[in-house]
Design a protein that fits this description.
Radius of gyration: 25 Å
Shape: flat
Helix content: 40-55%
Structural class: alpha/beta
Number of strands: 8
Strand content: 5-15%
Oligomer: single chain
Number of helices: 18
Largest sheet: 4 strands, parallel
Amino acid sequence: MTTTFRPRTPVLFLGDICFFVFSLWLSLFLRAFEVPAWSVFAAHLVPFSLLFVVWVGIFFITGLYESRSILFARRALSSSLLIAQTINVVIAALFFFFVPLFGIAPKTLLFIYLAVSFLLVLFWRAVLFPWLGLQKTERALVVGSSPEIDEMVEALASAHRAPAHVARVIAPVSTSLPTLVTQAVEDLSPRFIIADFCDARVSAAFPELYNFLLQGITFFDSSALYEEVFGRVPLSLVSPTWLARNVSRSAHLLYDPLKRAIDVVVAVVLGIISLVLYPFIALAIFIDDGGSIFIAQDRIGEGGKPFRIYKFRTMSGNDNGAYGAGGTKLVVTRVGRYLRVSRLDELPQLWNVLLGKLSLIGPRPELPALVATYEREIPFYRVRHLIKPGLSGSAQLYYHGDPHHAADVESTKMKLSYDLFYVKHRSLSLDLAIGIKTIRRILTRSNA
């Protein structure tokens, strides 16, 4: 969370490093079924230590340290860990191939290490770490009243091993709010107070409550906590003032050109590699129904400007969004269903990325007819057009009520809350995290 409720992340980090090292020793033992000499172990530990730093970074990116993974059991720990360690072993293989400076080429060792490290780190995180007692649930008070507060309280109540238990919710409806909070602190002895400082009544009461800091009670801003827990911005908070404070181009002067350079490099590499698949995909589409291989559609991009995207056809035709606020009468083909699940239908869009109309990461590009509807019905919808749309993004990963080929204002409001979170927090590390989680979602066919 904005700060962790207890020192979980440092302990998890240290434990992961220890088990990385022990996994290396055990893998060397299993390779020859004899205790490895110190010289052999040291010769491997030096290069592997460099990799450990990268591997921990992959753990961060894949969400193995983030609060959302603690609060929501959207995916099993074993699945996330296996994907992360598989990526780590691939990185190690490339490292030893391209940097042959250490006199070792541990091909067999890497395969053994993948199995050993997966089992040991899983044991550490699923068994030993909970046994340490750092996941003890602490009491918390919540001061505020809003749908977002209710949503957060419900999430904490239903979460597996939640870091905090909400002992009481105090609505700021009384002029004696400081007295109510003081009484609750005396009765319940909470460790945390989650306060809605966006509510003027709560902010006005804080001068009489800050002395609780001296008692060791930690305050959390509920809106910042909400963003970190759910990965989205509550639309109730978005206003012209909020936009002025949180949405800026000048803060990303270095990030934008670096992101563009990464887009170009990745699009060229993947675009060339993907050409091998084009004949097979085209043949499958043609055999399925004999129709056209590709479709072209208009979408709205950066600055609200329209552009054309190109995809492999997955439906029985192409109406280019002419259905407007209604729903399409087209149906997904048999081959198209597989292409969508595997994301292969989007391979031609890599050329849109190369041309600068799309980015690898960003809000989903929408059809012009739908954008016109949403701009009328949803305040500040145009903010998502401040940046380039992307092949993948926060909304595509974390929200699964997406109204495909139909207009749905309420679902799109939820998507916008994720898009605004990305616009506010966009960075290379966030892009990398979304990219790896997208790969994991494709490989496991599960929600991110």
